[in-house]
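Changelog note: in this version the structure field was regenerated for every chain. One regenerated record is shown below for reference.
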Amino acid sequence: MKSYLLPVAILLFLASCAPDLRFHHKVDQMVADGDYQGAYALVEENREEYTENSAALFYADTGTLAHYAGRPEESIEMLLQAEKIIEELYTTSISKEATTFIVNDTMAPYKGEDFENVMLNLFLALDYLEIGEIDEALVEARKVDSKLNLINSSYPPDKKNRYNEDAFVRYLMGILYEISGSMEDLNDAFISYENAEQIYAGNYWLNYKTPVPISLEKNLLTMAGFMGGEEFRSYKKKYGSTNALSLSDKQQKAELYFIHYNGKSPEKVAGAIYAPMPDGYVMKIVFPQYRLRPYNIRSSIIRLTDMETGKTTKAKTELGENIAAIAVESLENRKVRIAAKAIARATAKYLATKEAKRIAKKEQGELAADFVGLLGNIAAAVTEQADLRCWKTLPAEIRIGTCNVDPGSYKIVASLLN
């Protein structure tokens, strides 16, 4: 009878390993209501629900919630811890990988989707920018390019990610270099803006329907004018209708950037395929897929009213980073890799059940063999679970707005548009 009870033992063990994050629905509502402190506290209260294998997700969630709550130092601490865990997991032990092959992917420590790994550095850069640490912000932004190159180098030539460069991070790097202001930094700002423009116009538009932001066009024209020569003539011809200040005029103004985190990132749900075998065994192949979560806000406008003159300046935000689209496309990219592993795992379970039935029939007869086959079917169906873990506190998109105004005191009002 011990062999019959083995699938039950597996199920009990599995239940203890899969995280139960149902409280996240309340976290989502708190974030929607602007109660970031409450959402952070709720995640902290439910820390044990993440389990040891999902530690990186706990730190990623608390890191973003601290960021939203205006606590950048705490956000930095949490996000750095998440990054440390994920980096260590890229040298995962063979024993852990073997467990995921036998049972399912939820048995392994979560090391994040490739794009999630990069989002850690993006939010770290924004945290450092918030506390005025420009050099540290640049360090985090530069990590993105090297990290994406490293991730893609681990995949075969025909299975690389389409998400191999980040346009928004390049745009942010340009802003950071421009803030620094030295001749060398201004040259680097132009290069970063130029790279961002090329990625937006190419990969980002093709795969994520994210066009070149007009604010980036303006910055690129400003820096091209500063550089002079062929660069300026080329971009002036391309974006001549864009109203851009010269660098000297721009430096006489106060330049403001607005970041709008909009919507909720998609969540993972399970997809499954059932394949009946000739001997009655049902092979179950599962895989994760993203489901978009709806949101009503489409854009935002910021109005700045000069307290002395009453003059009002408007800045409308534009799509800078379509995280939802990147998430969906990134998972789609690795679907073949996921499917190959799932098929191999399901096949192994089928062969194990088939062998157990053969032994049971030989030793105890047809009825025992049927019973073993039934247990094998149940165990395979229940233990074959898709890994639905994901970084749910990310926004669906990051929008950016900017304007140049005369130095002074302003009343700032943000309006959300649906």
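Spot check on this record: Confidence is low (pLDDT under 50) at residues 1-16, 98-102. The chain has three domains: 1-110, 112-126+141-252, 254-418.
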